Recover the amino acids of this structure.
């Protein structure tokens, strides 16, 4: 179905979450426990000067929305200053395990859903403002978000989508004209920063934690109603809810989570805070906070300073942590499922799906189509070779895509090529290359067994190994520009990241190795949850 484009203030919203589930009309926005509720009906708090900073035409096209002017009625909606008649704004109640510990009620402390609008694709999309003011779930915080973290969420949501990674989307970034005080590294140095609101878009923002809070507080009616709601609207192919359907639903959540994590591992994305309240029930990447992108290949790397001691959410831990999070979800679902053993099937499916999906993606990244027995070993040994030689992950796969055609057609002449290749992709002054070189020789031999012609191997590899990812220092450059009123770096990045597999010869410097100045710089090497 095709809808004529309309501004968001003219869109008709439906409100299934509010209309079909138990919640409360929030009499005030003071933080408090809200037992018995799936949500609190609470509206945004106005800001002084909402103005559009960035807009995703791609996301807007999906929703059938027209682009607003810098300041107009649509921007009033996106900044939280206007609620139209068909919206029933709400903050969802959820809990979660944070860094392995049960944290009790958390909830949308600064996010507010306005309701859902019908997209051009006929699907319904929930529209959520992040940073739109306090809710009953704001705990000790202000319900606001700073420009730097909002820009990071806006840009990364869209960049991930364009890479083909399951994710929530972002429609707009709106400056509020107000300042927000944050102590960026919790070091006793609070600063006034510019505030912003991101408009996020997803079929739903329901998290593992929405179910966990119900189970933890013995609200079994809410648990079941929320599960039935989720299945009805988001997993309709599973049919009418029953115990068997709950088990099948959990399996599907496990499967989708496995696919999502395999995508992260495939592009070098580190989420940074994989608490169970940051895990989408739809298997989407959600809540972009202190995330980062691997540059030197380092499984133990995380950008999140809060996690520097434990490294619980480091790159290489992500597959295991997702499994742990699924176990916590399974535990929350047990009141609805008498045959608890049945849930183990989902966890096993997670393991198998992740392994298969990961291996399949890695083989494609390496341009290997015909299965050979030795391929699993090639895939398995590559990470430690890359780590030892301190190789940039994105550059490695991109450059090897260009090299593959030569390797597949020649033999014996690789040694000189490899030296150059490693020097161009390594961060080490004198990299330890012996294992990587051996690996490359084996890989070259293996490529020559492929029946595909060299040209099509190269084309496949270039279509799965991005040239451009949202390197940490690129996001930081866009932030510093935007803070100074210059949005050109942000818009340039948006343009390039929209087609990350294209060459964009004019933008080569956005595909460079991390510059030395960014190695230890705040915002590039280190990030916190302060946002
Ligand atoms: P996060 O670490 O961003 O996933 O947030 C964890 C919890 O803290 C969620 O319940 C958030 O809504 C809440 N939260 C984070 N920042 C703020 C803020 N500035 N104001 C209110 N609540 C917040
Ligand atoms: Mg969160």
């Amino acid at each position: 179905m095709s809808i004529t484009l309309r501004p968001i203030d003219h869109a008709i919203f439906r409100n299934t979450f509010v209309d079909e589930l138990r919640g409360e009309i929030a009499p005030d926005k003071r933080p408090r426990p809200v037992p018995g509720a799936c949500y609190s009906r609470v509206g945004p708090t106005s800001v002084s000067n909402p103005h559009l900073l960035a807009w995703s035409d791609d996301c807007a096209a999906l929703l059938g929305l027209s682009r607003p002017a810098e300041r107009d009625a649509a921007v009033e909606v996106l900044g939280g200053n206007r609620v139209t008649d068909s919206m029933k704004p709400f903050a969802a109640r959820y809990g979660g395990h944070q860094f392995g510990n049960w944290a009790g009620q958390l909830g949308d402390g600064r996010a507010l859903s306005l309701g859902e609008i019908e997209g051009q694709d006929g699907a319904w999309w929930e529209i959520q403002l992040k940073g739109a003011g306090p809710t009953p779930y704001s705990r000790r915080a202000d319900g606001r978000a700073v420009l730097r973290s909002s820009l990071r969420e806006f840009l990364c949501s869209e960049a991930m989508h364009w890479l083909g990674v399951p994710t929530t989307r972002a429609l707009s970034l709106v400056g509020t004209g107000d300042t927000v005080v944050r102590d960026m590294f919790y070091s006793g140095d609070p600063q006034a920063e510019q505030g912003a609101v991101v408009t996020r878009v997803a079929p739903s923002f329901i998290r593992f934690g929405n179910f966990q809070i119900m189970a933890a507080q013995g609200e079994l009616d809410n648990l079941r109603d929320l599960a039935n709601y989720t299945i009805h609207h988001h997993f309709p192919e599973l049919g009418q809810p029953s115990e068997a359907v709950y088990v099948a639903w959990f399996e599907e959540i496990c499967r989708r989570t496995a696919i999502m994590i395999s995508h992260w591992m495939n592009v070098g994305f580190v989420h940074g805070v994989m608490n169970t309240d940051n895990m989408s029930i739809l298997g989407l990447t959600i809540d972009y906070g202190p995330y980062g992108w691997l540059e030197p290949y380092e499984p133990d790397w995380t950008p999140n300073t809060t996690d520097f001691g434990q490294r619980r959410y480091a790159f290489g831990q992500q597959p295991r942590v997702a499994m742990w999070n699924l176990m916590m979800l399974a535990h929350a679902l047990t009141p609805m499922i008498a045959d608890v053993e049945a849930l183990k099937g989902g966890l096993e499916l997670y393991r198998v799906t992740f392994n298969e999906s990961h291996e399949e993606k890695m083989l494609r990244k390496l341009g290997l189509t015909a299965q050979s027995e030795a391929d699993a070993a090639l895939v398995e040994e590559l990470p430690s070779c890359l780590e030892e030689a301190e190789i940039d992950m994105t550059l490695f796969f991109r450059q090897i895509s260009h090299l593959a055609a030569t390797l597949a057609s020649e033999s014996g002449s690789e040694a000189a090529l490899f030296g150059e290749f490693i020097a161009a992709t390594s961060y080490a002054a004198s990299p330890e290359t012996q294992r990587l070189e051996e690996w490359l020789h084996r890989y070259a031999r293996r490529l020559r067994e492929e029946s595909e012609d060299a040209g099509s191997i190269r084309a496949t590899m270039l279509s799965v190994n991005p040239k451009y990812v949202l390197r940490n220092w690129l996001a930081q450059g866009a932030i510093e520009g935007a803070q100074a009123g210059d949005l050109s770096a942000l818009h340039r990045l948006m343009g390039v990241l929209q087609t990350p597999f294209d060459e964009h010869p004019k933008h080569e410097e956005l595909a460079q190795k991390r510059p030395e100045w960014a190695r230890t710089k705040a915002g590039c090497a280190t990030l916190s949850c302060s946002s």
